[in-house]
Specification:
The chain is elongated and about 80 Å long. Helix 1 runs antiparallel to helix 3 and helix 9 packs antiparallel against helix 10. It is an alpha+beta fold and about 325 residues long. It folds into two domains: about 170 residues, Beta-Lactamase; about 150 residues, Alpha-Beta Plaits, CATH 3.30.70.
Amino acid sequence: MKCEEKIGKLLRIIERVANKEYERDNWRTILDDVADLFEADGAALGEIKDGYIYYTRVSSSILGSGLYDPENFKVPVWWSAFSEALLKGYLIVNDYRAYERAVEAWKKAGLKTKLVAILGTDEPFGSLSVGRVKSEKPFTEEDGKILKSLAFIFSFIVKEEMEKEELMEKAIRDYLTKLYNRLFLEEEGRREIERAKRYNYPISLIMFDLDDFKRINDEYGHSKGDEILIRFAQVLRSRVRKTDIPVRLGGEEFVVLLPHTCLEDAVNVAERVRSAFENMIFRFDSSVVRLTVSAGIACCDPVDCGLDTLLYKADKAMYKAKREGKNKVEVFV
């Protein structure tokens, strides 16, 4: 690529960033231009979370490859090109298949050469990467310096986006259990129900209420009660799918909204949660405590389907479980 053409492409990227075009499609178009600038087959922005770099902003080629999954393509921070790139702000890997810190999923995808630059100056928080799959053409030191400059420009914007996302995440999470809160259920739940009605797929809701929970607070204190709520949330989270919406409704009440789930499958989920919690043991000082949970289930009626209706029906079913001896799962009929 001629120098004049490269400068033109670089200026176009900077102009698009200045115009905040990344807000429209989560950086996809800009990263398409970055890949084009480096004659690469893909480009991605990654951010560090829990010891891994997750590439959550990717170019169209990566998004449409059928291989993209942030969980599979996550990179361990200190066993990756990232850690080696810290020294001078970028790293060139021109034989990725022989690279000892190569990510296995990327090798299987056919990555041949890779160029990575660090996001963040005083405190690195992510990376900007480009890679070649179809060609083995090596990246140059000039490429590295240009990518490093782009990463410097992108750093300020990505950092601001991450801070906004963190604030938003706090707003929709219950502070104690880290499950979603009622605000999120009201917003996302209604959207999910509208999608279910539009595309005619089943959607169910389970309401859980811990049995005799007030006794725990009265006898052992609220800190022990909080411990139980946290443990129940962990049980709940581990037994639902990523597409489900687990929520702490308030107090000892919890809800799970299950898209693409019929009544029978919802009952199986509720029974798994009920059984797992029943078998948990809590040790408070010299006391050994076991608790149970009651659950009510409602399924969306195509004619009269709404979040308020589902909550009402599940609540009725849950209180029937309470009246009939607790530690049960009941269905609204």
